[in-house]
Prior knowledge:
Blueprint: H1 2-18, E1 41-42, E2 48-49, H2 51-56, E3 61-65, H3 71-86, E4 91-97, H4 105-115, E5 121-124, H5 128-132, E6 140-144, E7 150-154
Parallel strand pairs: 3-4, 4-5
Antiparallel strand pairs: 1-2, 3-6, 6-7
Amino acid sequence: MFRSIITATALVIGLAACASTPTGDAATVPTHLDVRADWTLVDQRGTVHPTGEYLAAGEPVVLVFWQTWCGSCVAEAPRVQDVHKSRPNLHVFGVVSGSERDVDAADVQATALRLGLTYPQVLDRDLSLTSALAIQGTPTVVVLGADGTVLYHAHQLPDDWTALGG
């Protein structure tokens, strides 16, 4: 009985941490990411994505911050994949934050493969993207519009993609 209570408590704490909401006021969420035209993201396969060019051309960039151990992230992944496949005008990226000690690149790749994710996966090793966008929990979805304007920043996918340029 005691073991069941401990297990249940650990599960509740883990789920709460995974689906945590940002703390602090809305002012901490940036309204703009300072990007240059030469801003790029490099995915796990080594492909360089000219994300600054996408934004300069008015093409939205969707950043989905997730972790392999996050149940909510794994549950949301098929919906993100559907968005990626059905809305080719959106540039969708999975972003996994953490140092080499904290995040195993092979595990990220294996999890993405197991989930059938075909959109690029980016490792934010130095947490620069995570910090710049005030990411405080996973999953977090950020949609960037022209010139880095933050169009959306929340813990779930938006209901209306057309309002966000998608």
